[in-house]
Amino acid sequence: MVKYQGPELDRTFAALADPTRRALLMQLESGEGRSVSELARPFAISLPAVMKHLDVLSDAGLVSRIKTGRTVTCRIEAGPMEEAMQWLVRYQKFWEASLDRLAALVEESGE
């Protein structure tokens, strides 16, 4: 069952609201783990700033981290995004119905 309200969904959307965090997730979309250093490379921000973004993603359940020696490897965890997608699908149906009504109205007026 999908919860349409709750702290998990709120954390997911809050984490996805930031463009840097979305870019970090995009780097992980292949499913392969990447080190924090690799993830930080494309950004013009400090490594501690990247770590803070990863903390937010981790707290939202969107990223898991494994430490091996001195290397921290991150992997994407898509479960929370599935819940967010199910929430968004409700509104997709609304927009599709609205657009279908608009298309029908345009067709009627064009006759």
From TrEMBL:
<dbReference type="GO" id="GO:0003700">
    <property type="term" value="F:DNA-binding transcription factor activity"/>
</dbReference>
<dbReference type="InterPro" id="IPR001845">
    <property type="entry name" value="HTH_ArsR_DNA-bd_dom"/>
</dbReference>
<dbReference type="InterPro" id="IPR036390">
    <property type="entry name" value="WH_DNA-bd_sf"/>
</dbReference>
<dbReference type="InterPro" id="IPR011991">
    <property type="entry name" value="ArsR-like_HTH"/>
</dbReference>
<feature type="domain" description="HTH arsR-type">
    <location>
        <begin position="1"/>
        <end position="96"/>
    </location>
</feature>
<protein>
    <submittedName>
        <fullName>ArsR family transcriptional regulator</fullName>
    </submittedName>
</protein>
<dbReference type="InterPro" id="IPR036388">
    <property type="entry name" value="WH-like_DNA-bd_sf"/>
</dbReference>
<dbReference type="Pfam" id="PF12840">
    <property type="entry name" value="HTH_20"/>
</dbReference>
